[in-house]
Design brief:
This protein is 39% helix and 17% strand. It is α/β, with parallel strands linked by helices and 529 residues long. Among the domains are: 243 residues, Rossmann fold (3-Layer(aba) Sandwich); 66 residues, no CATH class. The strands form five sheets. The chain has a five-stranded parallel beta sheet with strand order 5-4-3-10-11, with helices on both faces. A four-stranded antiparallel beta sheet has the order 6-7-8-9, covered by helices on one side. A three-stranded antiparallel beta sheet has the order 14-15-16, with helices on both faces.
């Protein structure tokens, strides 16, 4: 569901004494990001120069920040993601459908990966399933017990001992409403949470030193992150709803196992995606969600990406048709500009002399401003606004005229502007839509030849023109009308043909009939008669 990509409005975290954050030693990326551990922006310092380790429990802002870090700041992001393929919900669903938990888990895993692919989300370096790492989880729990921070009960459960870490617990108190994890009667403290749960009848289980059972919820992430990154993690990301108790418990377990004072240096939490006018996040349990498959029936992946870029990652974001149309309009503005620039560069669009020095200056200022915006806690709305300003300045220079009178042209500066725009958006805003592009190209070329034939001038008594001016062949006028009819009938289908004197341009709008979304384009020169 879409809510899996945006994790209610960002709640302020309460400061808790006794949990001092230490500035990491290492490489300063030049970025300041809001760290939920300190409740303020901090310089993003990674352990190794040019490399950042990142772990996430569910697909969230890490996909966006990963692109920004790698493409613009030269940081290689090693991103690992855990796949929870065994838990209470999966077991319950398997009973209801009379299939194995593995079948349920693989079905949803496959759907999730297909959805991410359809949204053009860069996958992590590795997906790690819980069921394939249970032996590591058991060893991790044994280490926590050995270090004196967990205990086994006579019932066969293992709990983390909150009191054993003193006042170090509670970094994310206030992030969400506090909740006590349910458990058996043998818990020493109501806050203690399960590391290992004894198996119940008909439940999957693994053998362990404490008897047959399966991992608790939180331990899987600590174990798998440690298997990949060791005792030090640069960035841990996730939705704000996971801050407490999940991320809080991850910190407690990991620092207890590694016997360190600061396991993850930065926690980046994203806001929720919710329906406009509702305070509730999109949720299957509340039945107020839209699936990605259904979403893509109305909007494109690039439109969704623009929708996300127009909001701060830490803020809640309203999903509505109005907001999606705003994203579509922003993308269409960029796409149309790219189309016009390419027509200009090919000599198909004639314009007055361009203020070339002015555009070079605007481009340089845009690059600097966007880097500053993204270095300030990944401020994508400010960056997009700056980019649209560059498009505005470019459009001001692209004023079509019927003849250029041999004026000097400036294709290079426009080429630089378009190259920068497509690179910064990490998408070809004039990308192809399958083999349809070739079909439209041939159709438009044939239409252009017919139109050129129909427009061929004729000077004789039967001409439709005025004295001294060439007119049209009367018998060819139906051909010209047929060309116009074809153009008009293709437009509602998402194929837009524009006649510019001796030139025709075409655009394909991405998606369903009648949508005006992302475009691809080309220009067709009508053959000389």
């Amino acid at each position: 569901c879409l809510h899996e990509l945006r994790a209610n409005v960002f709640s302020p975290l309460l400061a808790v004494p006794g949990k001092k954050w230490t500035t990491p030693s290492g490489f300063d990326t030049g970025i300041k990001t809001f760290n939920s551990l300190t409740k303020q922006k901090e310089p993003l310092i990674v352990e190794r120069e040019g490399v950042a380790s990142c772990f996430t429990c569910v697909c969230d802002l890490s996909a966006c920040t990963g692109r920004i870090l790698s493409r613009l700041f030269g940081i290689t992001v090693i991103h690992a993601m855990v796949i929870t393929d065994i838990d209470d919900k999966i077991i319950k669903r398997s009973w209801e459908e009379d299939v194995s938990p593995a079948t349920i888990a693989r079905t949803y895993e496959d759907e999730f990966k297909k959805d991410m692919l359809s949204l053009k989300v860069i996958p992590p370096a590795v997906y790690l399933r819980v069921t394939e790492n249970v032996h590591h989880i058991i060893a991790f729990i044994e280490g926590i017990v050995k270090n004196g921070h967990a205990y086994a009960t006579t019932e066969g459960d293992v709990y983390f001992d909150i009191k054993s870490i003193g006042d170090r617990y509670g970094r994310f108190v206030g992030a969400v409403e506090s909740q006590v994890e349910p458990g058996g009667s043998h818990k020493r403290d109501q806050r203690d949470f399960a590391l290992w749960k004894r198996s119940k009848p008909q439940e999957p289980y693994w053998e362990s030193p404490w008897g047959r059972g399966r991992p608790g919820w939180h331990i899987e992430c600590s174990t798998i992150a440690s298997c990949v990154f060791g005792s030090q993690l640069d960035i841990h990301s996730g939705g704000i709803d996971l801050a407490f108790p999940h991320h809080e418990n991850e910190i407690a377990q990991s620092e207890a196992y590694h016997q360190c004072g600061q396991w993850a240096n930065y926690f980046l939490h994203s806001g929720h995606l919710h329906l406009k006018g509702s305070a509730e996040k999109m949720s299957k349990s509340l039945k107020n969600y839209i699936t990605i498959k259904d979403f893509l029936q109305s909007y494109s992946a690039n439109e969704f990406r623009m929708f996300c870029l127009l909001a701060k990652y830490r803020s809640g974001i309203d999903y509505s048709d109005d907001n999606m149309l705003e994203a579509r309009a922003s993308l269409a503005t960029v796409s149309t500009f790219v189309h016009d620039v390419q027509a200009y560069m090919k000599g198909q669009l004639q314009c007055p002399p361009v203020q070339e020095a002015f555009l070079w200056e605007r481009l340089a200022e845009t690059k600097s401003s966007i880097m500053k915006a993204l270095a300030d806690d990944f401020d994508t709305p400010r960056a997009v606004g700056t980019l649209l300003n560059l498009v505005y300045y470019g459009n001001c220079q692209l004023r079509p005229v019927s003849t250029s009178d041999g004026a000097a042209r400036s294709p290079a500066v426009f080429g630089a502007v378009v190259s920068y725009i497509t690179d910064i958006l990490d998408a070809d805003v004039a990308s192809t839509v399958g083999s349809l592009q070739n079909v439209v190209e041939q159709l438009t070329r044939f239409r252009s030849e017919v139109r050129a034939f129909a427009l061929a001038p004729r000077q004789d008594p039967l001409s439709t023109g005025t004295p001294g001016k060439p007119g049209l062949h009367p018998d060819r006028i139906p051909l010209l009308k047929a060309c116009d009819t074809l153009r008009d009938e293709l437009a509602p289908l998402g194929i837009v043909i524009k006649d510019r004197g001796a030139t025709s341009t075409w655009e394909i709008t991405e998606g369903k009939q009648g949508r005006r979304g992302q475009r691809i384009h080309n220009e067709v020169q009508e053959p000389s008669s």
